[in-house]
Amino acid sequence: MQAWSRNALRRGRSIGFVPTMGCLHDGHGSLVLRSVRENDLTAASIFVNPLQFGPREDFGRYPRPFRRDCQRLTGWGADVLFHPSPAEMVPEGLTTTISVNNLDKTLCGPLRPGHFQGVATIVAKLLNAVLPDRAYFGQKDYQQLKIIERLVKDLNLPVRVVPCPTVRESGGIALSSRNRYLTTAQKNKANQIFAALQWGEKLLKSSPYYASSALNTVKKLLKQISGSRLEYVELVDAESLEPVQALRTKCLLACAVRLGKARLIDNLLIEPR
Ligand code: AMP
To answer: Which residue range is the domain that position 252 belongs to?
Structure first.
C-alpha cells in the first residue's frame, strides 16, 4: 500500500482516503465521491477492526459482502482498495495503542470501554499505510471524527481530516451497515430517532437556556419507540464533547438506541440562534 502511495506522491498526485469497515452504503459513497472530486486519486480501506469491538459485540456477525463492496467502490470511482488481514493489522505482540483522552469520557465512550482506543490505533496504522493528503470521515460517527481530528493534531500527522455530513434515508434514519440487522417494521420505528432529535433541536433553539427540559422531552420520545432501549441521549459542546446545560455554543445532540439486534447511533449539530 505504501509503495503505491509513494509512487503516486512522487508523481505529484494527491491522495484522498476513505477508511471503512465495509458493507458499503450511500453514506460511504458520499465520502468516496467527495474524495474523488477533491483528489487526483482515491484509496478506500475495508477492515473490520477487531480492536474496536467489545467482547459481547457483533464482530463475528458484522456483514462482509466483499465482492459487492468492490463493485460499489469501482462505481464510485475509487482507484485502490486496501484490504489488510487482521493478522497484518493486529499482529501478535502489538503493544502500542493510542488513547485520545477526555474526548472519550462522554457519549459512547463509557458504554464501549476500549472502543475509541481501538479506533484511534487502527486509524493511525491505516493513515501510515495509505499516506493520504486528505482523509474523509462521517459526522454520523461524530465522536470518532473528533477523536481522529485530535489524534491528527496532537501527533502532527500530515493529513487533513475532512468531516462529511450524515446521509439519511427519506424517512430520516441515518444510513448504517448495522441497519441490515433491522426488519422493515424496526426500520420504520428507527425513523423516530431522527424525528426526536429534530424535535429536541426545535425546543433548544426556542428555549436555549432550558436544555435539560428539552433533553427530557427527547428522552421521553426515544423511550416511546416500542421494542427499543435507550442507552443515552446527551447534549454536549461540539468541540470538547463535555455536557452542557444551555445552548450557548455549537452543540451536539446525540443518542444511542438499541432496536432489535442493532445498536443505532445518531446525532444533530445545533447552532445557537
Ligand atoms: P464504518 O464502515 O461504519 O466504519 O464507516 C466508515 C466511514 O463512513 C466513517 O467515517 C463513518 O462515519 C462514515 N459513515 C457511515 N455512515 C454514514 C452516513 N450515513 N453518512 C455519512 N457518513 C457515514
So the answer is: 177-270
